[in-house]
Amino acid sequence: MARIAIFVACFLLSASPAWAQAKSSIEKLNAEWMAAFNKGDAKALAAMYTPDAYVLPAGAEMAKGHNAIEKFWGGAVKQLGDAKLTTVDVQSLGPGAAREIGTFSFKTKAQPPEQITGKYVVVWRKMGGQWQLATDIWNMNK
Q1: Cα–Cα–Cα angle for 28, 29, 33, nearest 5°?
Q2: Tens digits of per-residue pLDDT, 65-103?
Q3: In this structure, are residues 93 and 99 in contact, taking their beta carbons and an 8 Å threshold?
Q4: By CB neighbour count within 10 A (0-12 exposed, 13-18 middle, 19+ buried), where does 67 fall?
């Protein structure tokens, strides 16, 4: 039993730097996502998702695959801007996947603009050495 505890402790200590690096990578990708969204670049947003990814928007039909995801974000960028994502937690789901929990805010493009806030969960998959979004779901705080 002591050997198992030592093995688990060693594994967790050796995995921590790798997941710190994964969190850092994911936060960098979130910055790229925000930049693309704020430019209105739905094609760049869709390219950040795996080919078989799902977007599960609050109050709307799900979108699967690059074309549907590009269409979804293309509509969203016409109505929203000033995207801000904040990573709260990243957890390993194995060597090539991670779960991220975070918060978001947007401003509507209506006059006067309204602030929209909420939380999200995404599953990231590493494909070809790159992290990509595989599942993206969120809801608003009110």
Answers
A1: 120
A2: 999 999 999 999 999 999 999 999 999 999 899 999 999
A3: yes
A4: exposed
Predicted TM-score of the model (pTM): 0.84
Instruction: Identify the structural domains of the chain with CATH numbers, from first to last.
Output: 2-140 (3.10.450.50)
Query: Can you point out the beta strands (E) in the chain?
Result: 49-56, 63-64, 80-92, 97-108, 115-127, 130-140
- The 10 Å Cβ neighbour count of residue 68 is 17
Q: Are strands 49-56 and 97-108 parallel, antiparallel or unpaired?
A: unpaired
What is the distance of C-alpha 86 from the center of its chain? 10
Q: Is 22 exposed, middle or buried (0-12, 13-18, 19+ CB in 10 A)?
A: buried
Those residues with Cβ within 8 angstroms of residue 84's Cβ, 6 or more apart along the chain or in another chain? 34, 104, 105, 106
pLDDT, one tens digit per residue, over 26-60 is: 999 999 999 999 999 999 999 999 999 999 999 99
